[in-house]
Amino acid sequence: MLDFSSLLLAAALSGTCLAVTMFAIWLTAPRARFVLTVACGIIVLVAHVILFWRYTKEPDPLLCQIALALLSLGFLIICLSAMQYLGVPDHRRAIVPTLAAMAVCAAFTFLGLDGVGFIVTYATVTVLLSTIGAMFWVNGSHDRRILLVVSFLSGTCAVSFALCGVVLMAKGQWTLGAAPDNWAERLNSVVAVACMTGLGALTLSLHHLQAQIELKAETMTDPLTGLMNRRGLMSLHAERPFGPFMAVVMFDLDHFKRTNDIYGHPVGDQVLCRFAAVIRKYARTGVDAFRLGGEEFAIVMSRMTEERAHDLASKIGVAFGTEIVPTPLGPLRSTVSGGIGFGGADGSSLDEVLAEADAALYAAKRAGRNCVISRKRMGKAEPVKPALRSA
Question: Where do the GGDEF domain residues begin and end (predicted)?
Answer without folding.
Answer: 244-377
